[in-house]
Write a structure and sequence with these properties.
The chain is 31% helix and 20% strand. The protein is an alpha/beta fold.
């Protein structure tokens, strides 16, 4: 996610869209590099997690959201802004190693348009590692969960509320490989409530990532275009919650890929699907009913 606190290394960059974004110099990556923080957060997470639908259906009840990769706060604040129109209770958990990128963003709120009006909330959040109160119609509890997300997910005694939606936005698999393994996605899936539908959205369209999510237990579909990306990824514990689930044609293509085998441990190199991986995919409920010719 980000370097340890006390070691800030960030800068503002102007995107082709004209929006400003934050670049982490240590990782060499820009947060929301395509169409800008506000637009990307709305399209990729608010819309694909079906938050308006979830808020409308759960008025008066709690909606739990996980924000994996808090960074400079664009995803968290955009989701809270979406909640403000509904009389719901929202519990938002933001995961990251450090609050430093958010502190940096707060100091440059004049250029980061998505922070307008949120300065008071951010001042409380970064000092106390949490904020609770009313935003519009919504009652909000926003919490910071510090530490390495992969390590925290493996802690058997870590008590977390099961999410209704997950904005999965760490740095890329090249820069943050420990957060893209099949092992980690399996640990995330085990923390879902099987009686409640959950959606996970991420900017990656990598076959390795999609296979890792499938092996973890998720159903996986194609996500929207955003910025320079023609496609992203959406996953769920309910097949019917996916608008464009991956089909047997995708499965046939991925079987021929030379790089689709997911990493189980950080740093494992890509390669063709192993026989055990192919068999697990073939038997996955998302594809088990497909045409025989595509599943063999």
């Amino acid at each position: 996610m980000n370097p340890q606190e006390g070691q800030p290394s960030f800068e503002l960059v102007r995107l082709a869209s004209g929006a400003w974004a934050v670049r982490d110099e240590a990782f060499g990556e820009i947060m929301h590099p395509g169409c800008g923080p506000a637009v990307e957060a709305a399209r990729l997470y608010v819309e694909q997690l079906r938050l308006a639908q979830r808020f409308a259906a759960q008025q008066g009840r709690e909606v739990v959201l996980w924000d994996v990769g808090l960074g400079a706060g664009a995803n968290a604040l955009t989701m809270l802004q979406a909640a403000s129109a509904w009389p719901v209770r929202v519990r938002l958990l933001s995961f990251d190693l450090s609050l430093e990128p958010l502190r940096f963003a707060r100091r440059h709120a004049g250029r980061l348009a998505y922070l307008a009006g949120w300065q008071g909330v951010l001042d409380v959040f970064v000092e106390g590692r949490g904020w609770s109160g009313t935003i519009g119609e919504a009652k909000v509890q926003w919490e910071f969960v510090s530490g390495d997300f992969a390590v925290r997910m493996a802690e058997p005694d870590l008590a977390l509320p099961a999410p209704d939606g997950i904005a999965y936005d760490p740095f890329s698999p090249q820069r943050n490989p420990e957060l893209w393994t099949a092992r980690l996605f399996r640990q995330v899936f085990r923390r879902l409530d099987p009686t409640r539908p959950c959606l996970l959205a991420t900017y990656s369209r990598s076959n390795r990532v999609r296979v890792a999510l499938l092996l973890a237990g998720f159903f996986v579909g194609r996500g929207c275009a955003v910025g320079m990306k023609e496609e992203t990824t959406v996953a769920s514990n309910r097949l019917e919650w996916l608008d464009r689930p991956l089909d047997v044609d995708w499965l046939a293509r991925v079987r021929r890929s030379a790089t689709a085998e997911p990493a189980w441990e950080p740093g494992e190199p890509p390669g063709p699907l192993r026989p055990a991986t192919w068999e697990a995919l073939r038997r996955h409920p998302q594809f088990a009913a497909g045409p025989e010719g595509a599943s063999r």
